[in-house]
Amino acid sequence: MKKFVFILTALLFGFQVLAFSQSKIARIEYLTDFSKIKNSTSITFYGWDFRHLIFSDHSLNNYRDINSWIIPGWLDYFDKYNSGTHFMSKSFKKKKFIVDTLSIQPLVYKVDRMHFEDNMDKRNLSIDSIKFIVKKYNVTGEGLGLIIIADEVRKSDVTSTAFVTIFDITSKDVIYIYKITGIAGGSYGLIAFYGRGWIDVIRSFSVFYNELYLFQP
Fold first, then answer.
1. 3-state secondary structure the chain
2. Which residues contact 99 (CB under 8 A, 6 or more apart)?
3. 84-131 pLDDT, tens per residue?
4. Residue 49 pairs with which residues in a beta bridge?
5. Rg of the chain over CA atoms, in angstroms?
6. Residue 1 scores a pLDDT above 50
7. What is the pTM of this model?
8. Cα separation of 38 and 95, whole Å?
9. Alpha-carbon span 47 to 146, nearest angstrom
10. Domain residue ranges of the chain, discontinuous segments joined by +
């Protein structure tokens, strides 16, 4: 009976992954020892790091709006559509889930508005740059940290891309990185247009993380 339940669960996750993979790109970019994630008793969710975002949409008239209007709008949008911190906690039911959105998330408001502009000198994030970013986080404590580092919103292919990253808080060593490209669009206004893509990222992470958790030893 247990074997049947396991096979049925595996098939259900397989169908979920297939359905998601047809509409978006999601893959593990980096994974060290998954047992560190399984064995940890707590995880701290630091929210989003939008400081490295490339805004590839030239319909934006004023880059100042990204700090003052668009990013706060996205954060409200997540809660409005039940994809905020409470939704993220559902993937970590067996751990103490701590929310700290004040240590990293507000740092974006100190970034110069023109930093978000898409230009030839700016490059998308890589695994090495993600590791460098995490090492610079001014956070303390024990257990795991969870951060979503935004990479790019792109009008040409209607996407929102981010790196969902889990790291050891004490050492700042990255354990796990998922790069997910969510499908944006379907709404008017930059908040809803790309916000839909970010929600796609969040919900895709939940599916793929739980599938990975199920099959990792």
1. CHHHHHHHHHHHHHHHHHHHHCCCEEEEEEECCHHHHHHCCEEEEEEEECCCCEEECCCCCCCHHHHHHHHHHHHHHHHHCCCCHHHHHHHHCCCEEEECCCCCHHHHHHCCHHHHECCCCCCCCCHHHHHHHHHCCCCCCCCEEEEEEEEEEECCCCEEEEEEEEEECCCCCEEEEEEEEEECCCCCCHHHHHHHHHHHHHHHHHHHHHHHHHHCC
2. 44, 45, 47, 85, 89
3. 999 999 999 889 999 999 999 999 999 887 788 876 567 789 999 999
4. 149
5. 17
6. no
7. 0.86
8. 9
9. 8
10. 2-215
The tokens for 15 are 């169908």
Written as six digits, the tokens of 55 are 């805004």
pLDDT score of 61 more than 90:
no
- C-alpha distance from residue 122 to each of 51, 117, 119 (Å): 13, 9, 6
**Which two tokens mark 13?**
């996750």
Instruction: Specify the residue for token string 């954060």.
Output: 75
Q: At 60, which amino acid appears? A: L
Q: Residue 100's Cα: distance from chain center in Å?
A: 15
Average pLDDT across the chain, whole number: 85
Pairing of strands 54-56, 159-168: unpaired
